[in-house]
Amino acid sequence: MKKGKSITLLSVLGVIMAVLIVLTFVRFPVGIKVYNSFVGAYDCDYDLAGGYAYTLTLSDSNEEEIVNKKDFLKTVSGRIEDLGYDLYSVKGFENPDPSITDYSVRIELKKDSKVAADISAIAAYGKVRFFGGTSSSELSEILTDVNAVEKASYLGSTYYEGTTYQNFSVKFTADAKAELDKVVLGASSYYLKAIVGEESGDFSTTVFDTSAGSSPFSITNSYANGTLSLSYGNDADQVKRMVMLLNKGGIDYKFTVDDGAEITSPYGNATLGLIIALAVVLVGTVVFFCVKGKGFGLIALLNVLLILPIYAFMFIAIPGIVVNLGTLVGMLAGAILIADGLFVFYKRLCEEYANGKTVKASVKTAFKRSLMPTLSVGVVSAAVSILVFVLTKGVIKGFAISFGIAAGAFLIASLLFLRMFVAIVLPLVKTENQDKFLNLKREDE
């Protein structure tokens, strides 16, 4: 590559990198709008950003004794996970006085507008009860003597004529279907309501109601083969709560729920330590190569400055990623991967030049020799992250996602950006001085 072309490309890339770095860390205005940085736009879990804590306390009207509190906490945890939370805290508290049967559960979740409604669904009491009728104003209880629901599923959203509809299905058991067939298929219209708990009172929760709202709808054309398929409003979170309640019903004990309280990040100090460690790895890598490889330090710096904002952007470009403490550990591991890729290449470069090759030939051979180790590390890292993602949950799953993205960033940095910057920077140095620029030495020197 000619020197003039190298200068032009380096200038263009410099502008691109500067813009990406600004977008990564700085909030910026465009007209009357203010846009978040990449990092500022992250959806952080409660361990990093704080969240809400709710306390569930056994009601005075509760009649069932909690025999196995450990199993009950697992039940609560399962309901939380069904609503899409990967990271949470569930703790039970008993009164130290054995003569007092008070029991409470503290649940901590990330900040979200839907948390209060989710907690209400988690604490819903009782079994699923169905009410039906051919008139929206006259519903009577049905399916009282059967296990009604085989499986409920969230089917995603559809968009029609400017409105988004959330869809779900309820597959009834064979016994429930037989009973429904007698009334639903023989009626010109039929309305259905499902609740959890008592028919009325403080401990009842409406799951769905086809007889309510400004535009009630019949299920006559929605019910077939024992499966009820419906669209219900435009709130996906509400429908997911419906599905969870239809599948699991309510809990067996009556709890009152407080109004919740805001909590701070439980791992603030650890977060700061990981961020500092991440910066030390990246800065230390560049400094090391500036001392060890002289001009190769510039190549390492350019490589890091370009891959870092792209890596940061991936956490908002990929839908559904929630950043937690494990994510930061994965970022740190990713930084170590990138540093290792630079080290492997430079070591091969030094070896080839020491054996008598020219700088140009040494670079070419070094890339060939480092290709398989780089691919091996990248592919194995990606495979490990996928395996960990499938087999774990919570903070560890956050690590798996972050480390998987890091594996991709490592391959891009090592196989593309490093080669690109070597090709751009070396032509800026006279051929006879390139060995000194990269601090390369012959074996006998």
Question: Could you characterize what this model shows?
Answer:
The protein has 445 residues and is α+β, with helices and mostly antiparallel strands. The chain folds into 2 domains: 3-42 and 267-437, Up-down Bundle (Multidrug efflux transporter AcrB transmembrane fold); 51-262, no CATH class. The protein is 49% helix and 20% strand. The protein is built from 12 helices and 15 strands. It has helices spanning 3-25, 46-49, 69-82, 115-122, 174-183, 236-248, 268-292, 296-317, 325-354, 359-391, 395-425, 434-437, and strands spanning 28-30, 33-35, 51-58, 89-94, 103-110, 128-135, 138-142, 149-160, 163-172, 191-197, 204-209, 223-224, 227-231, 255-257, 261-263. The strands form 4 sheets. Strands 3, 4, 5, 14 and 15 form a 5-stranded antiparallel beta sheet that branches. Strands 7-6-10-11 form a 4-stranded antiparallel beta sheet, with helices on one face. Strands 8-9-13-12 form a 4-stranded antiparallel beta sheet. A hairpin with a 2-residue loop joins strand 1 and strand 2. The longest helix has 33 residues, at 359-391. It is elongated, with a radius of gyration of 30 Å. The mean pLDDT is 85.
- What's the rounded overall pLDDT mean? 85
Distance between the termini: 30 Å
Low-confidence stretches: none
Largest sheet: 5 strands, antiparallel
The number of distinct helices, counting runs of at least 4 residues, comes to 12
| Tally of DSSP β-strands | 15
Order of helices and strands: HEEHEHEEHEEEEHEEEEHEEHHHHHH
- How much is the radius of gyration in Å? 30 Å
- Overall geometric form: elongated
Structural class: alpha+beta
* Strand-residue proportion: 15-25%
Binned, the helix content reads: 40-55%
Q: What count of structural domains?
A: 2
